[in-house]
Amino acid sequence: MAPSIKSKLEAHFREKMFVESLLPVTEWKVELASFDIHKITNPEVSGIGYQEGDLKGFYNVKAYVLDRDGYTCQHCRGKSKDSRLHCHHIVFRSQKGTDAPENLITLCETCHKALHNGEFKLSGNKSKTKHATEIGILKSQIRKSGWSFAETFGYETKYRREQVLKLLKTHYFDAVAICCRDDQNVEVEDSVLLKRNVSRGDYQQRTGKRSEKKIPTGKLFGLRKFDLVKTSKGIGFVKGKRSSGFFAISDLFGNKISDSVNVKKKCRRLSARSTTLVQMVQMTHSSPTCHFRQAGTVEEGVSC
């Protein structure tokens, strides 16, 4: 398994343990998404078109790319008179490039060597199917992990959320719809717990101007970056520090609350920073079928 896929799989299990540390979970219900990768690359495909892709009639991807490019170098357009052709990855496999035809280009050997010598660069487009492919792998690995859960599907979630619960489309309302039964009387909290993972420190600039300056990561006026503070201009996380004592404050996702808050006056730290930032926010919504109750009451059990 690729390290990036393994990291995302472990992130799912960490979230599972986090939820279990907060709630008395009696049953897990998980919505496993499926994606039509052919439809992503070609929205018009239907019927027999699924069996007649771009590679139909070609021995392999390389043969298709050479034919698509007219057996001509796409950089010099044949000006080098070099008949030796290469099928080159625009974004290297080592840099998360794929073997998809849109990431391959025909180059003559002269241009191919010049490219690897750094004489010119090719600009590539991001893969449209990367995340869909990763989801498919994650889905398979979660099923094999031994995690006991009931599987549900997107169309069931959408029906419950829209037709039964009469709720808007949000991630947390989707979670409510996944958990509940069609005949269940649902009580929804009026607050949502948001999380964000951040690095332990800041990235040090390695080249260019000011690359010799070390980034200060310690406390200033008793505060570090990403500490949660209550100030005269609101509650938020420390985003930037200044020796003058005027700090920049943002919400959990980096949106500006204030560029200049005097932390030397009327400022209180609510929690110290960690690699996982957590913040409770209030949500405003009404539904004819759901009862929204004030946060703080405890439910005897929950099904997720």
UniProtKB/TrEMBL annotation:
Coiled coil: none annotated. Pfam families: HNH, RRXRR. GO terms for molecular function: endonuclease activity; nucleic acid binding; zinc ion binding. Residues 60-113 form the HNH nuclease domain. It comes from the Archaea. This is HNH nuclease domain-containing protein. It comes from Methanosarcina lacustris Z-7289. The lineage of its organism: Archaea, Methanobacteriati, Methanobacteriota, Stenosarchaea group, Methanomicrobia.
